[in-house]
Structures are given as C-alpha cells and as structure tokens.
Amino acid sequence: MIQASAGGRGYRRASKVAERAEQLSAEVGDAYARGVARMSKTYVAFLSGKYKETVEHAKPAVGLFRHHCPGAWWELTNARHLMLWSLAYLGRIDELPRRVFPALRDATQRGDLYASTMLATGMLNLAWLARDEVDVARERVELAGEGWSQGGFHLQHYNTMLAHANLELYVDAPRYGHEGLLRFWKSLENSLLLRTEQIRLEAYDVRARAALAVASHPDGDPSVVDEAERFARKNRRSGAPWAIPMATLVLAGVANQRGKVDEAKTLLEQLDSAFEEVDLAAHADLARLRLGQLIAGTHGQELVEGATQSLIDRGISVPERWAATFAPGFDG
After folding, report:
1. Do residues 288 and 246 both lie within one domain?
2. Which residues of 109-234 form beta strands (DSSP E)?
C-alpha cells in the first residue's frame, strides 16, 4: 500500500505484491487472510485512481469480513469505505444512500466512532447532497467532526474538510468553503497526508474548484481564478489518468471566466471521451452540460437536456447544484 500511495510505478510493484499475497492466502485457506489479501488489492487500485477496479476487489473483501470474520469491524469499515468512495467517483450516486445510510445506523448503534465518522464525511457525505438533504448533510459532517479527536490532523479531519467544502459549493456559498480549506490547509500539509498521491490530487482538485467558484460568484473575488488555475495545473502535470480530465474541467471554467469561451469549448470537447476512459461517468455528464451551455442553440440545448437527465438517472436530485459543486466557473 505504501508503494501504491506514490502512484505511477509504485502501482505496478504494489500490484505484484498484492497478487502474490492473494495467492498465498488461497493456499492457506483462511477467510481472514483472504479478506486482507483482497483488501490489499482494493487499496492498491484505489490509491491509483482505478475506481472501477477498486469496487471489483472491495466487494468480495466486504463479504469475507462481514460473513466469515467475526469482530473484523475495522477491516470491514476500510474495505467498504474504499468501495463507497469509488462508487461516488464512478457516478453511481444512487447506490450511496442505500449503502451508506444502513451502514451508518449500524455503526452508530454499535458505538463505532471510526466507522460512523468515515461514513458521514468525505465523498460519502454526497449521499445526502444527492438527495438535496442539505441540513442533514451538514448535521452529519458536523457531528462527525465534533466526535473525532481535535488533536493533530488525521485522515478523518481531511475527510471532514472535504465534505464541508463540497457542501458549501453545493449551497452556493463558495467563500465559506474556500475559507475552510485555507484555514486547515497548513495543517493538511504538515500532516504528511499529501504524500499520498490520491489524497494530494483530490485535495488540489477541491482547492481549485473552491477558488474557481469564488472567482465566478457574483459576490466573489475574480482574482482568485489564478489560484484555481495553479492547483488545476498541478494536477494536470501529475500524469494520473483520473486527475488530468478533472483538472481540465477546472481549466475550462478558468478559461470561461477569463472570457476565452472558444478555449473553454475546446477543453470541454476533449472531456467526454477522457472521462469515459477513466470511468468517471458523472463528470462526463457535467462536461457535456457545460459544453451545451456554452454553445447554445439546438445542439447545445440537446446536450444540456441529455446531461441533466443522465445526472438525474444517477440519483442526483438537483443537477444544477451538482454542476456548481464539481464543474464551477460557468454560472457567473
């Protein structure tokens, strides 16, 4: 997992180790060993941004820990967490409420602070935003933040920060989301969490989105668009296949904010296939939505209507707010 967290060549090395571990666990025949080996493959895929592959590995790991390993709550929580986080990126948003809600109820009843915190924050908080249940989403993330240790800056603090930022973008209060990121950014850097490529790219993405949303807001600061571009370009240079199109989506918004509409269109036209290649289907819908808004006319309207319906079919109640969250820069 440490090798995989670095991305690139580390993924290939870690994949070989995880594959060998699974072979050995099969020879042993122990359910817990098989679950841990499968979870290792889950981590390797997740840390490399291979979300479809993550789900494929996580499902059997969850099954093994749940049905054959009594007391393996930590392991079950981690395997399930990676699966659910990946479902969010894959655009399978409709699956989040029916998986997150019962798991959270169970964790709360058992007094499992670790599981309940992980289930209410980060990308899993989208389970409520997708249903436009903003007050519940806020309550869940605030309770999770209050319940966790206030010392240091852990993964749970990062997940809470991410959930808060997405929530503020969703409710059209980007300044608060951006300020929250700035308030905790130094702590995030000092925590060394950014050494993990997946977290670093995700953090840079939300920082870029928040800055762009502030720049494009009627009451915002247009100069912050430079910050959005800076963080987006960092991700575009990363070489990570999943992060590059997400960065390009931000850069399209940056170009639009600077009045370079043709450049924004060109960038958006690249994204349909780019997002599909890395299985980020909802992001592909957002790129089509934004492109349709820019080109207007009959074709533009068809793109907007098609993308909007696709987002609704994915379980997203208010597509325009989802777009403001994950594809800002086009409404100002």
Report:
1. yes
2. none
